Amino acid sequence: MPVPVRTEVLRKSIHMLVALVPFAASLNQGITLALLAAGTIVYTYAELLRCMGVRVVLISRLTAMASRERDLGRFVLGPVTLGIGTMLALLLYPAPAASIAIFALAFGDGLASLVGKLFGRIRIPHTGGKTITGSAACFAAIFLSARVVGASAETALAVAFVSTLVEMLPLKDLDNILLPLTAGTTAALFAYMQI
What we know:
By secondary structure, the chain is mainly α. It has one domain (3-193). It is built from 9 helices and no strands. It has helices at residues 3-16, 21-27, 29-51, 59-66, 78-92, 95-119, 132-149, 153-168, 175-193. GO terms for molecular function: ATP-dependent diacylglycerol kinase activity; nucleotidyltransferase activity.
């Protein structure tokens, strides 16, 4: 497996771990938010140290292994925006919409990148290298995860469509914040309209 693909598999495997957050939040949302915040702070501190040449056991090695070419020699922001996007989803939306938002981040964004890197051939203009195959995987993952959470087909289609459009934007690491906000807002609006 080529190094860029191996790196992407590692990155997105870590990325998809946020799919465990809705379950943890159903047990205790306060503790889940505290753990997410603590993890984000610890990572930020460790990454600042790594940028100054101080290696932090496990975190620095994992960050180096999961870094893309564009991340080399600079602060790797992705895990910070991933933590912030996940926390915002929990704080801003009620349980079904929060889960949809987090699953869109975990699976939609995660699979878009993996499938796009592995199988994507046709690039979409003005998207920073996104592929039709990756975007289709994003749409399918968000649609299916929204349906699993219990969203209607109409809501799942709307969330998947709008979220896929946002995922296609060349936002770099900011998609980790904007994607769950888009998915959560769309899911919450459709839930409100169906009342």
